[in-house]
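[Automated response] Your request has been received and processed.

Submitted sequence:
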Amino acid sequence: MAIHPPALYLGFIGFSVPFAFAMGGLIKGKMDNEWVMTTRRWTLMAWYFLSAGLILGGQWAYEELGWGGFWAWDPVENAAFMPWLTGTAFLHSVMIQEKRNMLKIWNVVLIILTFGLTIVGTFLTRSGIINSVHAFTQSEIGPAFLIFLALILVIGFSLLFKRIQMLESEHKIESVLCRENAFLAQNVLLVGIAFTVLLGTTFPLLAEAVRGTKLSIQAPFFNTIIAQMGYMLLLLMGIGTLIAWRKSSWEGLLRNFKNPLILATAGTVFLAWFLSDRNLLWSVHTIFWLTIFVTATIVLELFKAVQAKSRQTESNFLKRLFYVISRNPRRYGGLLIHFGVILMFLGFAGTFFKVERNMTLESGVPEQIGEYSLKFQQVEEFKVGNATHRAAIVEVYDKDGNLLEVMKPAKSFYPTQPQPLTEVAILRSFLEDLYLIFSSENGGEQGSVTLRVFINPLIGWSWMALPVFTLGVGLSMSYRPKSLVAHETIFLRERYLAAQATSS
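Generated structure:
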């Protein structure tokens, strides 16, 4: 929790740098690719910190709020998610500008929207107009953020329209089957998801302001619409990995994607058989197919590059792998980040077949849930500081009767709190978490407790996305365009010569 808010803050303010460079370029009338390359690292770091803040926030909610999940489409959660979506679109779109000198207008629009959404997020958090566990109390600073947001949008788009002729693309999309179109489709989906989240977050506020009616848009609205776009986004992530720039043929696509398609289909069939007792929804199988497909494209792309290097040298596999990655760290860092996104999708998939049950446990009497047997022993009371904790002591056994862990979900009573706080107990494993919430303590001769029990499959895989993002971003950051290095060298030399002339 101590890292989550600063990470989000760094992500928010980080996007001000590319925005400032874009506005400076529009004001000066210098809109070549220099501003994009100069701010690439700033943009990537802003995106990374925003990603870290979102993941750590989800982990904090999962462990501390005691409701069994990690994402509830809370307005403040949404406020941090929206600039992440448009920032992701911007990172992909500027690659087309660097490679093909295209989508210059679109990139300026994206950075204006991204920075504007960071202000929207700050407004929602600081104004106090929404009910959220994240929001601050009502304050007078909210209108100031709205005025600032209006100035950003008016000035930004006015400058854009003034310089729009300077931003015309030097090239055109030559074929439907090309990486440019795949990236553009990804951008449209990301912006579409951001717009959906913005609509679902702000519509209740607008309805209350206009009609005086309080509305609430719940998770089903977001899940129903965004899930479909998320599936398409994941598919395009795999397609964009192997499809060629400028132009591809159907024969080339079939050759490149034959093996990933076969692996994805075979893997999904195996998982459907292996998990047949879970009665999984079609959406779960869809996510499994897509994640296997994208993973296969990443692995096969890396394998082909290493295999090509093996024709040139007799070195071992690890040396060839290091050489391939070091020659193009930006590309393979991006592929590693894509793998992190796959892990997040698998964590989301687990929520579709989680087990949730309210269980009343008698002392000494085992109760079965999934592959676990729970045996309640007693309620223990202890003090930590000024808080009084009452914990249910629950022994957890596997299907063979082996003791796995003694879990202690608790309720904490503080003198200043009218209601007790929930302290969850979590038994983690590679494939799933056993999650216990102490609901109530019952009477009776032997004593009993009521627990809310969750079995959350694959949820830990979402947390693994952060170290993968860290490695991917670090690898991508090691790349610097030669043109930018040369420009900086010339600039520093000119400053040195000017300083020497002044001193003499």
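Summary generated for your ticket: The chain has a mean pLDDT of 84. Residues 179-211 form the longest helix (33 residues).
If you did not submit this request, please reply to this message.
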